[in-house]
Amino acid sequence: MPDMPKMFRPAHLPTRIEQRRERDRKRDEEEWRGWYKTARWQKLKMRVHIRDLFTCRKTGVLLTGKFPAPNSPVADHIVKHEGDPVLFWDEENVQTVSKAYHDSEKQRIEHGLAPVWSIPKGIGRSGVMVHLVCGAPGSGKSTFVHGEAGPDDLVIDLDDIRQRLGLARYDSRPDALKRALAERDRLIATLEHRRKGVAWLIAMAPTDAERAAWVKALGKVTVHDMLTDAHECKDRIINDPTREGAIDHLLQQVDAYFARRHGSRAGGGVGQKSGPLAG
Fold first, then answer.
1. How do residues 57-100 score in pLDDT, each as one tens digit?
2. Of the four listed, 143, 199, 208, 235, which is most buried by Cβ atoms within 10 Å?
3. How many domains does the chain have?
4. Which residue spans within 147-186 are E strands per DSSP?
C-alpha cells in the first residue's frame, strides 16, 4: 500500500524514514551494549578500580562489597558515551562509584532529575571559532575571558547568566542552576548560526574526555586550560566578598575538579595554556 498523504497520516503511524532511523538506533545500541561483555572492558574496569583504590569517587566510600551489593564497585562513564567508542574506551572518562550511588544519584542525573554540568544535546557545529576556557572555580576563567573578548564576541559564562536572570552570581540551588543552564544552552544553540566575532565558553570540564566531547559537538575549538593550582583557587574564593554565602560549595567544587583532573595539570602554577583542537 502506498504511503498515505502526510495530511491524512495518523499521528501514531511512523513514516518509513522514522522506521529506518529506529532500526538503525536499535542496531547501534545493540553494538555498544555488547562492548560491556568483552574482555577488553573487564580489563579496563579493573584498571580503573585499582587506579581509584576501590573507592567511590563521589562519596569516598571504600568499596569492599561483591556485586550487586550497594558497596560494590561500578565502572561509570563520566561523560555519557552514547555509542561513541572514543568516550567509551577512554579511561579518563571512566570512574569508580558505588553501586548504591550509580543506581540512585547517577540515574537521577541522567534522567534529568538532578542538575548537572552537561553538553546540550542536538547542538550544531559552531559558525565561529569557540574558545573553551576550562578550570576550577577561582582559577581566573572569567577574568581571562573578559580581558580577551572583543566587542563582537559572545561570552557564555554561567555566573554572568545567573546575574542577568536576577539571581546571585554563585547561586547553586537546583532551581537556579536549572534556569541558568537552560539559558546557557540556548546561547550555545545560537552558535550554529553565528558569523560574527568569536565565542568564549566557560566550563570547568576537568577531564580530557569532556573537553573532547565539547570539541566534537561544536567543531573547531581552542581549549584554554587555566593552570591555577588548588591552593590559589581556594585562597581567591575565601578572600572574594562576592562569593560570600557560596564559599563552602565552591571549595567542594575545587576539590571535585582536581580529583577528576587527577592532578595532571594541577601543579602547573598560575597561568593559562591554550591549544587548538579540530572536530
1. 888 889 999 988 999 999 998 877 778 888 889 988 899 999 98
2. 199
3. 2
4. 154-156
CA distance 237 to 251: 8
Per-residue cell: 180: 541558568
Q: How far apart are the first and last CA of the chain?
A: 44
Which residues are 272's β-sheet partners?
Answer: 226
User: How many C-beta neighbours within 10 Å does residue 104 have?
Assistant: 12
CATH of the domain at 201: 3.40.50.300
Residue 120 forms part of a structural domain: no
Residue 39 covered by a domain: yes
Residue with cell 546561547: 187
What type of residue is 45?
K
Reported as a single tens digit per residue, the pLDDT across 174-207 is: 788 889 988 999 999 999 999 999 999 999 998 8
**Do the strands 94-98 and 130-134 form a parallel or antiparallel pair, or are they unpaired?**
unpaired
Q: What are the two backbone dihedrals, phi and then psi, of residue 226, each rounded to the nearest 5 degrees?
A: -75, 120
